[in-house]
From TrEMBL:
Originating organism: Dyadobacter flavalbus
Subcellular location: Endoplasmic reticulum membrane; Secreted
Domain Malectin: 856-1002
A single GO cellular-component term on record: extracellular region
Keywords per UniProt: Carbohydrate metabolism, Endoplasmic reticulum, Glycoprotein, Membrane, Secreted, Signal, Transmembrane, Transmembrane helix
Entry protein name: DNRLRE domain-containing protein
NCBIfam families: DNRLRE_dom (NF033679), ELWxxDGT_rpt (TIGR04534), Por_Secre_tail (TIGR04183)
């Protein structure tokens, strides 16, 4: 064989592909309804403004404000990672509230203030944590000054540092505070009793109220004019009062020991109390005198109680709820006499309660929430039977009167929103439109090349879905429980290509199901009882094993072959509360107790006889056996405990599945008593131990490792832990590229360990604990670790790392200017599936992937990195999925190519696929084949021995393809070429078994014919009165122009990011939409914009950049929905020439046609704006590896050097090419890279022959390269040395 090439790679070179990041919505599964939305926890009115503690189902709790309009309802500040936010109080020009968060080892509560701006919403100082409790009032306004219980006692503030003053030093908590006509009164615990204090706002004027009685003041305080009222506990309990000038004075004594509830109406103070054994808890009133303190009415006669609560005053009347013992708890009213105390309406007829939850006075009516038997609704009443009616026929809460308008939190079916009502028919409307329907995809499990998960589309309930990462490939598998009811698939488990899952929860029957991805193949395998909980589904050599935990506390081991008859009980274990199995060597291993031996390791082959105890390591009960269990190599590792009379001892045990091979590796100290799951990393297992004396008698968590030996089992890092809670807080334990990754609880940063103390370090510093880094959902895709985190700047978003500070970065900012709410991350075919809410669609299915921006990606299927003679790099095999099997031949000449190594290895298995991340666009795909087995020397077979199918992007490209036939025999290279359009960022190539044997491919080349770029930002702007409004989050772009009213004018901006490795030959803008107003042709023009500083959520007409070019081109837009194209090549080339990789295009109508054009924006789930780039040089023939080698050979055949004979034994002749000049040297190089100097019998000259003798060299039989080098050129010739 004679071949000549100009380059030899003696060593393999590694080259990382240039990658770009691409994240997108896969499918908005639920578009019909929502149970989340805008949830209000507290609200107050300040003038005409409403301040709320709320969340939008997306962001965490925060302070919101509203002026009663959608535009004026905005988040003031999100309060991330707060455990409590509440106690809204208005004082002066500020709003105050309390926030509790974790700091280091403790939880602390701070007083915050807000002026209605994010910058002005800040903490004031630390306060006592009893404010978070349900009892008492702890923030009280008195004439524009806020009083509160600070760490060191009673304090006041006007919101400034200077105006924040300590009035009464005390280490005691204040129980209740009220403003009595400009005077502060409070209950404070002092010297073993509760005392009444008063304050005029000065330290000197903050004193105890005179009290000659022996007893204590019991909260709450009631106010009537200048006086405060309270229950006083002494030798005789009763109602007492006091004032600024009046000491503690009895009003009426001999009430029973019960808590009062006060409400003032004019000059009357109403309260509830139990009057000994005469009356139950009923409504009373007082005017401050003993004679004027009387029972209003014994609503529930005798010793029974009506328990009046939820009071509101309207026009001198008190409205409240009470239970008269006949009608249930309903709405009542009173004017202070028995005769005027009447039931307003029996809203829920009969003895059932109306479940009234809130009452608020609004003008001459009360609004309240009640249930008439058809669900909670908003009601109103003017005090009459006919005037008591439903105001809004849906759920409501957080009722607030703002100057005669009622605001409330309601759900009219589309999710919670802020509503308002005038209290008249037709006067109720939604203020906000925040709620988004969501499917919340969870439970991702890879089965073949798809991921199965559960989701709720709002129509069929929560059912089984699947996705291949594309919109079209994301679909409901089956509505197994018909209608809106849910099957609730859980524990989805892959058993040799079949998805098994558990259906039913709560009150439902629990069932085992299976599916092969179609409606017909999704069937119920077996029903179990409601008391049965299925756990630990696991695939053991094609058989499903699972445990059933029932109400009696026993565990049953089951197995299933997918049929009802083949779903069988294997063995029952009494008093075993969980099932956490692993599999090794075709058997299932788990911890259990049979009632005879102790809790220890069991194994099962699926038969009762083959379900046996491996070894009773300890004679007593071992509780930790259940969950800390893992397989590494051919050994099971687990944690076992032994309960002795004096302590509980813990052991690390290693087992090969036999009693003899089960040994204790390590006995832990008594302080080590909680253990994490195991994480296998190469030859090591890592785990975290809770250590009560990690830091000199101070608890902590310790990272351990083991290699299976006592000497190789030791701690590598001590970690500070939480506030003494004895549990493992270190989380997100994963393995990646030989390292153990974990997130310590307090540090909240990403760490990694190589198994040594020195090699256990923090990867980088993403943010700070105060900012709430809060790393979660660590997931490995390829050699990259993805996780959610917050750096305190970008909000909570998707991050990635390859294990170094330099490679740790924000990967996907899903919610610019906000935070993303994540539910789950999962790997699928080299891409990341994301269940998250970015504030636009609700919690839906997104994906993220690294996309090759290079024109070309080449893969050496089944092999390592390989560089061809013409410097084309074929990267080591990657992006494959399915049955992982490769095939290779050690030697043998491959004809029709100069790159034999590429064809000597291949991916070859019954079914596999390649899922290659690429930008959207058109690609030429080259599949390279060689038949190295059937028909090869010494092998049988040939034509027809191997036949298989190939699909690309779901379309059949090759059917029963026969490499032997196409190549013209064995050991011959051949290739097939296809043009494929990719629209979802992933090129899918499937190799499927055909008529004979297994599919096989040697190499794959993907050459970009064009790239389709999606917009990275877009928005439209509007002139006139809308010139300050931003429209960046809308799913549409608008263009309209007309003379006259400026408010009509609209134009749009679209920005693209160009791939750095592609020189544009042509560029076309594609934008999907139509003429919204008529069928005329309206010309849309595109202009280049050099200023790329605008932001999608910040651009408006007032700050929008001007066009930098004349019109680049135009297109006529009519009423047909379609993609319209404008050639923008000149501007894209100019941007690339200037070094910019950003392209901003302005879309406008310069002709004042007064017609609105509407196009999809990037926020639209379908047909977003696109920029289609055709590379400057795309040559199909240059990509053909086989043709390239043949062309190179033919072009140099007459002038290249050659050797003969070939194969070579002891000597050969070199016919030297005329290309050489000067001295010529020779070197023989083995396939292992070893060089041998070669001498000729005479000086070698260009154009002449040289005789070479290699008999003195000790050479093994095989392929060698003869390197011929001179001043002019270097040649390499392949030769075969034989014996």
């Amino acid at each position: 064989m004679k071949k000549s090439i100009l380059y030899l790679a003696l060593f393999l070179m590694s080259l990382q592909s240039l990658l770009a990041q691409q994240g997108s919505l896969v499918k908005d599964i639920n578009v019909t309804g929502s149970a989340n939305g805008f949830r209000i926890y507290e609200s107050i009115s300040v003038g005409n403004m409403i301040y709320m503690i709320a969340d939008d189902g997306f962001l965490q709790k925060g302070i919101w404000k509203s002026d009663g309009t959608a535009q004026g309802t905005v988040l003031v500040k999100e309060l991330t990672d707060a455990t409590f936010v509440g106690r809204l109080t208005s004082s002066g020009k500020l709003v105050y509230f309390a926030v509790t968060s974790r700091f280091d080892y403790d939880y602390k509560t701070y007083l915050w203030k807000s002026d209605g701006t994010s910058q002005g919403t800040v903490p004031v100082m630390e306060i006592r944590s009893n404010i978070v409790g349900p009892d008492g009032r702890h923030l009280v306004d008195v004439n524009g000054t806020l009083y509160f219980n600070g760490i060191n006692g009673l304090m006041k503030t006007d919101g400034t540092t200077q105006g924040t003053v300590l009035l009464l030093p005390s280490q005691s908590a204040i129980e209740d505070m009220v403003n009595a006509n400009g005077k502060l009164f409070m209950i404070m615990y002092l010297n073993g009793n509760y005392r009444l204090y008063k304050s005029d706002g000065t330290p000197a004027g903050t004193v105890a109220v005179e009290n000659k009685a022996n007893g204590g003041v019991i909260w709450p305080l009631g106010v009537l004019g200048n006086e405060v009222y309270f229950r006083y506990s002494s030798s005789v309990d009763g109602l007492y009062k006091a004032s600024d000038i009046l000491p503690v004075t009895p009003v009426k004594e001999r009430f029973s020991d019960s808590q009062f509830t006060f409400y003032s109406v004019g000059s009357t103070l109403y309260f509830t109390v139990r009057n000994g054994s005469i009356n139950g808890n009923e409504l009373w009133k007082t005017d401050g005198t003993t004679a004027g303190t009387t029972l209003v009415k014994d609503i529930n006669p005798g010793a029974a109680s009506s328990d009046p609560v939820l009071m509101a005053a309207v026009n001198g009347q008190l409205y409240f709820t009470a239970n008269d013992g006949v009608n249930g708890r309903e709405l009542w009213k009173t004017s202070g006499t028995a005769s005027t105390t009447t039931l307003v309406k029996d809203i829920r007829p009969g003895s059932a309660d109306a479940n009234i939850s809130e009452i608020t006075a609004v003008g001459s009516k009360v609004a309240f929430v009640a249930n008439d038997g058809t669900g909670d609704k908003l009601w109103q009443s003017n005090g009459s039977l006919s005037g008591t009616s439903i105001l809004a026929d849906f759920q409501a809460s957080a009722l607030l009167n703002v100057n005669g308008t009622l605001y409330f939190n309601g759900n009219a079916g589309g999710g919670r929103e802020l509503f308002k009502t005038t209290m008249l028919a037709g006067g109720t409307s939604a203020v906000t439109d925040i709620a988004r329907p969501e499917s919340i995809p969870v439970g991702f499990t890879k089965v073949n090349s798809e991921s199965y998960f559960s989701a709720d589309d709002g129509i069929h309930g929560r059912e089984l879905w699947k996705t291949d990462g594309s919109t079209a490939g994301t679909m409901l598998v089956r509505d197994a429980t018909t209608g809106a009811n849910s099957t609730n698939p859980e524990q989805i488990t892959n058993v040799n290509g079949t998805a098994f899952f558990v259906g039913g929860n709560g009150s439902q029957v629990h069932s085992l199901w299976k599916s092969n991805g179609t409606t017909a193949t999704t069937v119920k395998v077996k029903d179990f009882t409601k008391a049965d909980t299925l756990q630990g589904l696991i695939n053991v050599n094609g058989t499903l094993f699972f445990g059933i935990i029932n109400g009696s506390g026993s565990m049953q081991l089951w197995k299933s072959d997918g049929s009802t008859a083949g779903t069988q009980l294997v063995k029952t274990f009494p008093q075993t509360s969980t099932f956490s199995p692993v599999t090794m060597n075709g058997q299932v291993y788990f911890g259990a107790w049979d009632g005879i031996n102790s809790v220890d390791l069991w194994k099962s082959n699926g038969t009762a006889q083959g379900t046996v105890l491996v070894k009773d390591v300890t004679p007593n009960w071992g509780e930790s056996m259940y969950t800390s269990i893992a397989v590494k190599g051919n050994f099971i590792y687990y944690i076992l405990s032994e309960d002795t009379p004096s302590s509980i001892d813990y052991f690390l045990v290693k087992s090969d599945g036999t009693a003899q091979g089960t040994t204790v590796i390590k006995e832990f100290d008594a302080y080590n008593n909680l253990f994490s799951k195991f994480t296998a990393v190469n030859d090591l297992l890592f785990f975290v131990v809770w250590d009560g004396a990690a830091f000199d008698d101070i608890f902590g968590e310790v990272v351990w490792r083991t290699d299976g030996t006592e000497q190789g089992t030791f701690p590598v890092k001590k970690l500070r832990s939480d506030d003494g809670d004895p549990s493992i807080h270190t989380h997100d334990l994963v393995a990646l590229d030989g390292f153990f990754y974990f997130v310590p609880d307090l540090q909240e940063e990403l760490w990694r360990s190589d198994g040594t103390e020195a090699g256990t370090q923090q990867v980088t510093n993403i943010g700070s604990q105060a900012n709430g880094v809060n790393i979660q959902y660590a997931t490995v895709v390829g050699n990259t670790l993805y996780f959610s985190a917050s750096d305190g700047k970008s909000g909570r978003e998707l991050w990635k790392t390859n294990g170094t500070a330099e490679t740790t970065s924000l990967a996907f900012d899903m919610t610019p200017n906000g935070s993303t709410k994540f539910y789950e991350l999962a790997a699928l075919n080299n891409q990341l599936l994301i269940s998250a809410d970015n504030g636009m669609y609700g919690a839906e299915l997104f994906k993220y992937q690294e996309t090759n921006t290079a024109n070309t990606i080449r893969i050496n299927a089944g092999g390592q990195d390989f560089t061809t003679a013409t410097k084309k790099l074929f990267i080591a095999d990657k992006y494959y999925a399915g049955i992982d099997r490769t095939s290779s031949v050690a030697s043998g000449d491959i004809l029709n190519t100069t790159n034999d190594v590429l064809y000597q290895s291949a991916r070859c298995s019954p079914s596999f696929s390649y899922n290659i991340p690429v930008p959207n666009g058109t690609f030429d795909v080259y599949l390279h084949f060689a038949e190295t087995y059937f028909g090869a020397p010494g092998k049988k077979g040939g034509k027809g021995s191997r036949q298989f199918h190939v699909n690309m992007e779901g379309s059949r490209k090759l059917t029963n393809y026969d490499i032997f036939v196409k190549a013209g025999g064995a050991m011959r290279a051949t290739a097939e070429t296809f043009t494929v359009n990719v629209t979802d960022g992933m090129l899918n190539i499937d190799f499927l078994t055909g008529a004979a044997d297994l599919p096989r491919v040697s190499a794959i080349e993907v050459i970009a014919a064009s790239q389709t770029l999606n917009a990275v930002a877009d928005a439209y702007v509007r002139d006139g009165s809308y010139s300050a409004t931003n429209y960046g989050n809308l799913p549409e772009l608008n263009v309209k122009n007309a003379a006259g009213d400026a408010s009509i004018k609209r134009s749009s901006y679209v920005r693209f990011q160009l791939p750095q490795t592609v020189n544009a030959g042509s560029a076309k803008l594609r934008i999907y939409g139509h003429n919204h107003e008529n069928s005329k042709d309206i010309y849309l023009h595109a202009y280049g914009v050099d200023n790329d500083s605008w932001t999608e959520n910040g651009i408006s007409k007032n700050n929008a950049p001007a066009a930098s070019t004349a019109s680049l081109g135009s297109v006529a837009v009519n009423d047909k929905y379609k993609y319209y194209e404008i050639d923008v090549t000149s501007y894209v080339k100019a941007q690339q020439a200037s070094g910019s990789n950003l392209v901003t295009l302005l879309l406008a109508d310069p002709n004042n046609r007064n017609t609105r054009l509407v196009f999809n924006s990037k926020e639209n789930s379908a047909n977003p704006p696109q920029l289609v780039i055709q590379p400057a040089s795309v040559s199909n023939s240059s990509a053909r590896l086989n043709q390239e080698g043949i062309m190179a050979e033919n072009a140099q055949a007459e002038q290249g050097s050659s050797i003969y004979p070939n194969p070579v034994k002891k000597q050969f002749t070199v016919s030297l090419s005329m290309q050489h000049a000067g001295p010529i040297s020779f070197e023989l190089v083995s396939s292992a890279g070893k060089g041998y100097a070669v001498r000729t019998t005479q000086d070698a000259k260009a154009g002449e022959k040289a005789e070479v003798n290699i008999s003195d060299l000790t050479l093994s039989t095989g392929i060698y390269m003869l390197k011929i080098q001179s001043q002019a050129t270097t040649e390499v010739i392949k030769m075969l040395v034989t014996e």
